[in-house]
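Pilot study result, target chain (128 residues):
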Amino acid sequence: ATDSSANIPPHANLKMVDWELYEKRVNELLSEFQIDVCNLIESYNNFCNIIISTINECVVCSRSGSTTKVISPSTSHNNKHRTKNRIPLIWWNEKCTKTVNNCKQAYLEFKLNPCVDTFINFKRAQAL
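Predicted structure:
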C-alpha cells in the first residue's frame, strides 16, 4: 500500500483549503474530464493538474488578504536530481528500490574486483 500523502510537499498547509469548495469544484471539473486512451500520459497529467489547480484555487485567504499556493506542479517533490515533469510511477515500491540498489552494489563490486564470483553475483542481481 502506498501513502497517498507522499506526493504532497512537506510545506503544504492543507488546513488552509476550503474542502467543501474543493469538493464542489473538483466534481464539476471531473464531470467534464475525459480519458484519452490513445494518450494516457497526457490524460494522467491533465487529471493531476485538475487536482493541483483546484487545491490552489480553494486556499482560504490569510488575514492580509493574500493567498498562497498550497501545491505547485513544478515543486511537487524535493528531489533535485529528477526533472520537473517526471511522472510518478505508481507501481514502483521499496522492493524495486532495494533491487536496483543491490544490482548497483554488485556491479561496483565486480568493477573493483573483476573475477568470476563477482561477475556471477552481478549477473544474478541483474536478473532480478
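One observation from the pilot: The first helix runs from residue 19 to 32. A full batch analysis is planned for the follow-on phase.
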